[in-house]
Amino acid sequence: MRSMLLHLAYFLLILAFSPLSFAQDFDFFYFVQQWPGSYCDTQNGCCYPKTGKPDQDFGIHGLWPNYNDGSYPSNCDPGNQFDPSQVADLTTEMQMEWPSLSCPSSNGSGFWSHEWDKHGTCSESVFEQHGYFEAALKLKKKVNLLQVLTDEGIHPDGSFYSINSIRDAIRGATGYEQGIECNRDESGNSQLYQIYLCVSSSGSNIIQCPTLPKGKCSSQIKFPSF
User: Is 115 one of the annotated active-site residues of the chain?
Assistant: First the structure.
């Protein structure tokens, strides 16, 4: 009997520290894209990637598992660290669509590592590393946010636009509400910074947001050039 209990305890100990124990359930993803002009024209500034200045387009920030109550898991599997070799075939596309603008200049791997470690490891029930980054790249192709806005006369030229007009444009293209986050430029103007689209827990389809992030924006916000 004692031997059986020892074997059971040993099995439970192994299970507790296995990678599967870190995989957590979640309800949906936030797919977050940021406007580079709004990242760079703050007091902190920015640094272009080693590959050069990115295109004037929204860049991926991340694909973040979330719960319907607004909370979210993070850093779910410290043992499964980012491995650049697993996304080698995606690297060129990631450098274009998922660039890092933080200083000092980099090749982006530090940014991607942070996103995988903090958010990607919490989606292990759905994705391994390659699938996680590939899903984000595919989602970006589903809705061309810059095209959606410019088609409605909302251009990244430093002008100010009604936040409601931005919401309406994206809702018209996706069929769903979205989250908008603003930051402030060096002069203190509220400006379009990040757009949150909600995605099914499979990571494939845009859905109605169960909850929206709380972003502080003025009624008229700047859309800076880049």
Answer: yes
